[in-house]
Specification:
The complex is a heterodimer. Chain A has 8 helices and no strands. Chain A is globular. Chain B is mostly helical. In chain B, helix 1 runs parallel beside helix 3. Chain B starts with a helix and ends with a helix. Classes of the chains: A mainly alpha, B mainly alpha.
Chain lengths: 170, 139
């Protein structure tokens, strides 16, 4: 089942069809939520709430678009709500339990640790640009800022990451 | 090496070009600035490293929690939705009574109260139900 078919089925009231979307995107969404909340429990709560928000808002979703960038805006809003709660404990938790596994090498983990050391906003931009491959226009739309702001923030985030990586190498 | 405003401008233009957002800049500054050339090498190396970086295994399964929340919300919404046809019939009947001599349906005076209690019971959950699980332990 592809995303568009699952979304059409969900709109007819088929809750089970939503499972396809949750299982397909939950791991990625959790990493993104951890980038923004830096707290494992908050990330799980925000991701769960964002999926529920997405199910409720599917009627407004244009199936010609990709699901994840649309969902990401909901996820981001939930993460900010979680983050604004005073009791939230700040952890560095993109990799709560880093392990080399299938498809993940020691070099990959080093890169994730370097991203982990960035501020949440900078880490978010690096991941969305370099790993998700979003364009400046997509980033501007998801982040709700002008294209020029995306460029300057991305520039600064890359400088910072480059310094971290260079520092680690030396 | 110090960077100048020219460096900043040239680097922004180079960055947009590497990201495929603009054509390659024709900037004389870059060909003469060793600092910017080094910066470009670093950026290209970083871009190569990050491209296709796999996500760490998040080890989560949110489906059951998400499904539970969605179904609970659907149930809460389904009862008011089911009341619409009944309200429609009552409204239509009362409207018709304005024009025709129709009998008033015989309703027991306690029926609205019973209906209200049933709705509250459904929305708030069964207050007499025994809780058989400890949510804090399930987590």
């Amino acid at each position: 089942m592809d995303d568009a078919a699952a979304i059409r089925a969900c709109r007819t009231g088929n809750v089970d069809a939503f499972r396809h979307l949750v299982e397909r995107y939950q791991a990625r969404a959790m990493v993104h939520a951890r980038l923004l909340t830096r707290n494992d429990a908050d990330a799980a709560d925000a991701t769960q709430e964002a999926f529920v928000d997405a199910f409720r808002s599917l009627a407004a979703f244009d199936v010609a678009r990709q699901f994840y960038p649309w969902f990401y805006v909901l996820l981001r809003n939930r993460c900010f709500k979680q983050r604004s709660r005073a009791a939230t404990k700040w952890e560095s938790a993109i990799l709560p339990d880093p392990r080399i596994g299938p498809g993940i090498s020691a070099e990959h983990l080093d890169l994730w640790r370097a991203i982990d050391r960035l501020e949440p906003d900078a880490a978010e931009l690096i991941v969305l640009k370099h790993i998700e491959g979003w364009t400046y226009a997509e980033l501007a739309s998801a982040l709700g800022v002008p294209r020029g702001t995306v460029m300057s923030r991305l520039f600064a985030a890359r400088q910072r990451l480059s310094r971290i990586l260079t520092g680690e190498r030396s | 090496m110090n960077t100048t405003d020219d460096c900043e401008r040239a680097r922004m233009a180079l960055m947009a070009s590497i990201d495929g957002e603009s054509d390659a800049p024709r900037d004389e500054h870059f060909s003469t600035c060793a600092s910017c050339q080094l910066w470009l090498k670093d950026l290209q190396s970083m871009t190569r490293q990050l491209q296709g970086l796999p996500y760490p295994d998040a080890r989560v399964d949110l489906w059951m929690a998400v499904e539970g929340q969605i179904r609970h919300a659907e149930e809460r919404r389904s009862l008011p939705r089911a009341l619409w046809p009944v309200l429609g019939i009552v409204f239509a009947w009362r409207t018709l009574q304005l024009f025709f001599d129709l009998p008033l349906p015989a309703l027991h005076p306690l029926l609205p109260l019973a209906a209200g209690l049933a709705i509250l019971w459904r929305l708030a959950g069964d207050p007499l139900a025994i809780q058989t699980s400890a949510p804090e332990l399930e987590n």
